Amino acid sequence: MNRKIIAWGIIAFLLALGAGTLLGLGWSRAGLHRDRHSWLADELHLSPQQQEQMKTIWSQGMPRADFSDRRRAMQTERDAAIALLIPAEQKAAYEKIIADYNAQKEALDRQRSKAFQEMIDRTKQILTDTQRTKYEEMLKRDEHRHGPPGGPPSPASQPASGPAKE
Questions:
Q1: Hey, how many other C-beta atoms are within 10 angstroms of the C-beta on 83?
Q2: Rounded average pLDDT over 53-57
Q3: Quick one: 36 exposed, middle or buried, by C-beta within 10 A (0-12, 13-18, 19+)?
């Protein structure tokens, strides 16, 4: 009985962690954070030359893929260790929980993508032609760096959430 409680506690923790990660990614992808370059430029009153130097520093600073790969490897090891804690007779139930979670997460990702695209479309409707062109360029630049607007992040920046399909 004690192992069962521990296993369910671990599963609940993992689900809460995954939900928090998705929420944080959603806020970030929805633009609810300020761009660090423009924020620093505003706060520190950086000259254009300093802004360019800052972009160089931050674009070369940390190899994103390396940290993502290492984080994914750590999560895989963690998931394998957790799976070992689950008694054999509970493995099927555990795998069903993970599969159900992944299906719900994918449905939520589709909902978020649709809502985000609707906001983009509504935003374009209120812009002038010049503003719309600039806005579309900004979206393309962001998509190149982070994946499609409102969609899940690119695989290199997406954390794993469990031993089952992402």
A1: 16
A2: 83
A3: exposed
CA distance 72 to 111: 25
pTM listed for this prediction: 0.46
The CA distances from residue 38 to 43, 48, 54, 78, in Å, are: 8, 11, 10, 37
As given in the structure block, the two tokens for residue 83 are 């799976």
CB proximity list for 26: less than 8 A, separation 6 or greater: 112
Q: Which two tokens stand for residue 65?
A: 């893929």
CB 87 within 8 A of CB 7: yes
State the alpha helices, DSSP H only, in the chain: 2-29, 36-44, 48-61, 64-85, 91-126, 129-146
